[in-house]
Design goal:
The chain is an all-alpha fold. The chain has one domain (about 1-425): Sodium:dicarboxylate symporter (Proton glutamate symport protein), CATH 1.10.3860. About 75% of the residues lie in helices and about 0% in strands. The chain contains 21 helices and no strands. The protein has helices at about 5-25, 25-30, 35-60, 65-95, 110-125, 125-135, 140-145, 150-165, 165-190, 195-215, 220-240, 245-255, 255-265, 270-280, 285-300, 300-315, 325-340, 345-355, 375-400, 405-415, 415-425. Helix 4 (about 65-95) crosses helix 19 (about 375-400), helix 8 (about 150-165) packs antiparallel against helix 9 (about 165-190) and helix 14 packs parallel to helix 19. The protein is globular.
């Protein structure tokens, strides 16, 4: 029964029990929501300062600022290329599977109030607002609000300045690295309650929206999950193969994080653990510290698949014909809007509303159809985003020559179970290095 001590096993049990409670006793399931919220809030409490220390310290350790520009440039190129693939995969899936056919929905029968909240937020998303959002109003404001994108900007400034301070900058970098160990330690404690959080989150999801939502729009949910699997296996699998490792071994290596994301519907809950594991797989600390946080804002593969698939679903469900020009416009706008709602509650739904605004022939009120299943869709979005960002860190590190391939092969071969076994035996573990 020792396997019951493993966190990912406990999370699976929490998901199953939460689903049963939500199904059999919906009211009790809805009341369990605070369990998931508390866990997410605890993790968010740690993420911003951890990202700041890791990114600033990593940049300060870089040999020169050219390396920073090179790593950042390669990461952005990778993000845009893979994100574009994700958009096309979602589009292709909609044309092949036709998930909206047969619905014949009369938009007049839908309650416009349901979509109004998301449409209102989407209307506020203007291009200049995206740029303004990058700049924090105060140094500590971004850290206090837990805004990853603004924290990343502050951390980059801090790291760049440290590289110019010579020996003093090096001391500051070591200090930031030491402080980050405090936050990693906090995460290791917080993650212990992940099974309870998964129990509460799943109880709330099933209790509030019910099994009927899954059945009614089950084909769309299935199409989205199938499309995401194809994207991971074919697109990310090819990228991983070209970089010298197996995507299946990689997924097995981060299984604990995947189950936590499945239970909480948020990839942010495992950002620190993902960074730690990428370092353990041989990617250098500076590259991981820059690519992972940036990826959480600019590399949202799951969100991109969802936007094109969901948009075409709504067009098919409302019998709306789209021209080739409208579809091309949709792709361009989707690429931009997916970056604009980072950190916004219900981001996937909001960017969908913003994207629909450029295709006026599809009634925006139609997104009301998806409200009941968005929680289930967000789980898949978060899982794909997590896998995509982990792969990005390793690929960019390999591209930059900052990946220890021997360490990568060794870690993937023995898997995370090796570390878990050491933890169960109470043996010391050197994080991010040899064990």
């Amino acid at each position: 029964m020792r396997f019951l001590k493993l966190i990912y096993v406990q999370v699976i049990i929490g998901i199953i029990l939460g689903s049963l409670v939500g199904w059999l006793w919906p009211k009790i399931g809805v009341d369990l929501k605070p369990l998931g919220d508390i866990f997410v809030n605890l993790v968010k409490m740690v993420i911003a300062p951890l990202v700041f220390c890791t990114v600033a310290g990593g940049i300060a350790h870089m040999s020169n600022l050219k390396q920073l520009g090179r790593v950042g440039g390669k990461a952005l190129i990778y993000f845009e290329v893979i994100s574009t693939f994700a958009l096309f995969v979602g589009l292709a899936a909609a044309f092949v599977l036709h998930p909206g056919d047969g619905f014949n929905i009369d938009v007049k029968s839908l309650d416009p109030k349901i979509a109004a909240e998301y449409v209102g937020k989407a209307a506020e998303m203007k291009p200049i607002d995206y740029l303004m959002h990058l700049v924090p109003t105060s140094f500590f404001g971004a850290l206090a609000n837990g805004d990853i994108l603004q924290t990343l900007v502050i951390a980059i400034f801090t790291g760049v300045v440290c590289t110019r301070l010579g020996e003093t900058g090096t001391k500051i970098a070591h200090g930031l690295e030491s402080i980050s160990k405090i936050f990693f330690g906090m995460i290791h404690i917080i993650v212990k309650i992940a099974p309870l959080a998964a129990f509460g989150a799943m109880g709330f999801t099933i209790g509030k929206f019910g099994i009927h939502a899954l059945i009614q729009l089950g084909f769309l949910i299935g199409a989205f999950y199938l499309t995401s699997i194809v994207f991971i296996v074919v697109v990310l699998g090819a990228v991983c193969a070209l970089s010298g490792f197996s995507v299946f071994r990689f997924i097995a290596y981060i299984r604990e994080e995947l189950f936590i994301v499945l239970g909480t519907s948020s990839s942010e809950t495992v950002l620190p653990q993902l960074m730690e594991k990428m370092e353990r797989l041989g990617a250098s600390k500076p590259v991981v510290g820059l690519v992972i946080p940036a990826g959480y804002s600019f590399n949202l593969d799951g969100t991109n698949i969802y936007m094109t698939l969901a948009t075409l679903f709504l067009a098919q469900a409302t019998n709306t014909h789209l021209t080739a020009t409208q579809i091309a416009t949709l792709l361009v706008v989707a690429m931009l809007t997916s970056k604009g709602a980072t950190g916004v509650t219900g981001a996937g739904f909001i960017v969908l509303a913003a994207t629909l605004a450029v295709v006026p022939t599809i009634p925006v009120a139609a997104i009301a159809i998806l409200v009941g299943i968005d929680r289930f869709m967000s789980q898949c979005r978060a899982l794909v985003n997590l896998i995509g960002n982990g792969v990005a860190a390793l690929v960019v590190a390999a591209w930059e020559g900052e990946l220890d391939r021997d360490k990568l092969k060794l870690e993937l071969k023995r898997g995370p179970g090796y570390i878990e076994e050491l933890e169960l035996q109470g043996k010391p573990i050197i994080r991010g290095g040899a064990h």
